[in-house]
Write a structure and sequence with these properties.
The chain has helices spanning about 10-25, 35-60. The protein has about 60 residues and is mostly helical.
């Protein structure tokens, strides 16, 4: 189980901007497909919730 928190969509975009500015100065800054990025950010959270749910119910089905 995780004790941390997930990055928000805005934080992910901020990290992306910082990395582009640091390692690729002059490169175009922006997100081509914001809907896809948002989907990935939420999908990761959903996967952990699913894992936690599976972890909690596993003992019920293994009896």
């Amino acid at each position: 189980m995780t004790s941390g928190r997930y990055l928000t969509l805005h934080e992910v975009i901020a990290v992306n901007i910082a990395m582009i500015q640091r390692y690729c100065p002059g490169e175009h800054i922006g997100v081509k497909e914001p809907e896809l990025l948002e989907s990935v950010v939420h999908h990761i959270q959903w996967l952990e919730q699913l894992y936690n749910f599976t972890y909690l119910i596993q003992p019920i089905f293994s009896s």
